[in-house]
Structure formats: structure tokens, C-alpha cells
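User: Please look over both lines:
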Amino acid sequence: MKFPRSGLKWLPLSLLVIIIDQISKLLVVRFIAYRDEYIPLWPSDMLGLIHVHNNGAAFSFLADESGWQKVLFGGVAVIVSLIILAVLRKTPSDRRLICSSLALVLGGAIGNLIDRTVYSYVIDFILVHYKDVWTYPAFNIADSAICVGAALLVIDAIFDRKHPDKDKDKEQNGEDGKDQADGGDAKEAGNGEGK
């Protein structure tokens, strides 16, 4: 099935996010002990790898609930994914910013949905912190794709929307051009009558 002008052409970006996300999580599970090991990255006092499980949503929201939240988050991910697919289908593929942002969010949503389906939790492993003073909740590649995609959606909404002033200018120019064409025809008709 081909979608030459549809935003669905951007689905390979979603697939790339899913593949990178799942491979990175498999590597973390294989090589980093759960909760017991921290691997510092450069700069070592700000970035590192850790292996943790998140039963909730972003920032471990609702992680301590009895389990109903897993079904809720899985259902939300499926609904959001279907909505994104519908929007991509109707969006022209040359609208790069919105198509890439939606593809990133879709890939991230599906990446975390795979975790919830297979493990019943999400594997997080990137830890951003400042020494022992401040720590951001651990996250993963899928979360990063969702955040970057959401930021690009905001940028698209701010900078790539239609401006009413531009539309008015086009309408005025179009009407003026039409008036000039009509005036030109009237002159020719007048010249013809005078001969």
C-alpha cells in the first residue's frame, strides 16, 4: 500500500524509534543489574545509566496503584496511536515538522506499550542528575521520542500555523488582480468601440 502524499510516509521514523528503544532496553536488562548498578557517563556527575522498572506513567505517576493503571495506560497508548495514524493519513507528507513530531510520539508510545504488554512495566535506564543534590526521574528512548515529538508539535503550532493576516493579503491581492484583469478587458472593449 502506497501513501505518496500522506504523512504515513513518516512511519519508518516511528519504526526506527521502536527498534532503538527495544534494543536499548534489551541491552540494559542483559548488562545492568536491576536497581543495584549505576554506570556513570560523561559528565559523570550529571548523566548515567541505571536499570529500573516503572509501573506507572511518566515520572512514575500512579506507580503504586494495584494494577488497574497498567490497563489504563495501555488503552491510552492504543487510542493515541490510532489517532496519530489517522492524523498522519490526512496530513500531507511535505509538512515535515508535524509529520516527524507525530511519528516520534507514535514510536515512543508503541515502544512503551510493548514493555507494558511484555513485562507489565516500562524499563527506564537514563538518569539525569546533579551530583546527589537533584535527580530527574529515570527515562528511556521512547520517553525521549515522545518529549521531542511533543516539543516539535508545540513549535509547529506556534510557527507553522496559518496567519489570518497572510490569508487576507492573498484575498486582497487576488481581488485586486481580478479587478485589474476586468479593467483591462473593459479598456480593450472601449478601444474596440472607438475604432
User: Anything to note?
Assistant: The chain has two domains: 7-161, 169-195.
